[in-house]
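Notes, Module 5: Reading structure tokens.

Key idea: the token line is not a picture. It is a compressed description, and you learn to read it the same way you learned to read a sequence, by spotting repeated patterns. We will look at two proteins. The first is printed below with its tokens.
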Amino acid sequence: METPWILTRMTNSTSQTSLILSVRRTGLLLSCINLFVFSGLGQEISRNLAYVTRADSILTLDVYEPKKKQSDAPLILFAHGGGFSRGSKDAPQNVAFCKALANKGFQVVSVNYRLRQKSQGFHCDVSIEDKRAAIRMAAEDIISALDFMLSDLGNGAILSGSSAGAEAALFAAFHLHSPHIRGVMSFAGALEEPEHWKTHIPLLAFHGTCDALVPFDRAIHHFCAESTPGALELVGSGALAQQLPQVRLLAFKNGGHELASGLLTDPAAWKECETFIEALTEGRPIGGVETAILEQPCNLPQAPTYRP
């Protein structure tokens, strides 16, 4: 399904890096570079609350409490990206995303989790067993964060994450058990296929069709060769949209993995999240595929099978 999304790309004259500059939707131009000015309902932020101790590590989270909370909405729990080897809830794009949702009246929790692959990476030379362990550990920490926030889970929780955080959120929702999980919002996430799919969990997925790290379709992570130790097959957003009955997919044709963090500061993405949360809260149907077109080449060694 074609949509009025058109993403344009420009080069930052200072850093010489390619950035998403704007989103034009139904004639409205929204700037999304360095957009960290927030207005609206406002919020109070409680930072670095210790929610669990793992061996010698004390894991912390931040709570973004809106001054005017939507009383019937679920809690939103966000997990940062970083390949299970780096990253933090304190990165500017993560803070921007959490503040944006809190300004809409949603209570948001942003977590740090165990980085099992710190100093080791998450590439093709990392074994499948190590990759699975890293994803599971992060997902277990997400469940522990939900337990810590138990008194705020009267309406359940929606898990959200970017890149590795999205992989952890999806794993927690579809591989682990928590009665509080009502949905997932994934920015460039994927998961290993579970033994049984939980078809009652709705998903909002943002993903570039030319993501060379986390596959958009069903493919090996990082597109590693099948003979490498880290040839872990994952089910990406395009395949999830075909597998599950309740998926809202925003597919970015030719988009790469940079969208995992870039979209966190995008007002159009915030609006999609708000709409998804409200639909879930009100029990309205969730689904549909929209395609944004990025005018750039896709040089993946294996092109995604999904065709917008």
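Here is the second protein, with the sequence above and the tokens below, as before.
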Amino acid sequence: MEARRGTAVVPGGKVSGPPNGSSREGTELWIVRHAESDGNRDGIVTGQFDVALTPNGHLQAKRLGRRLTGMAFDALYTSDLQRATATAGYAAAATGLEPQSDPRLRELDAGTWTGLKSTDIAVRFADEWLAWQKRDPDMRRGGGIGESYNMGATRITAVLTELAERHAGGRVLVIAHGGVMGLYLARMMGLDLSHTWHLVVSNTGIVRVRPFELAVNSEPKRYGHIVSVNDLAHLDGDSGRPDHS
């Protein structure tokens, strides 16, 4: 499937002004969640814990590579966590691009919850787990040292906007993580970040966004078209895992 080459939401949830030059409106980001990791398979809160891909994850990434073969991208960026860089390796082989790692593309930091299953968290951090069920966008999970949804949304929006501006008018491939991808979409749509979990991005799910296209022409103008979410056509019926870790 060939896509057309594609103003962004800026940090803090505001939108930028009109793009400088019509070519920027064609800027398109293909943001892909990494393939299945050991943490996904084992049902742990992975956060920024550096886990490897499972054998099934390598198969998913290989299928992603076949999907991308023959497509033209201006650049390939990836989170520096190995579940993302390993996925990016398959994308690199398919596109001929050298992956550029950026730690700002990492998953949300889960603090002291990192590496634990939700059942364990509910026992060891009972009060905090109970409070978390409200999904307060300002709550910092994991003993108050993890990232809040608002912090993560600001971080991922800033870096994706920067990458889009760096390749204005082009098409950029980014390998990232489910949680921050959902936050990016939610902030672009102006949603309450506590509803982020309604946005499912499975392993190797593709999200296509044109961040500089005008979405709402009335004042205040809003920019950003979400072309597709969680495209898994390359998995041949394997839906991946929808959790955000």
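Summary for the second protein:
- Residues 149-166 form the longest helix (18 residues).
- The longest strand covers residues 206-216.
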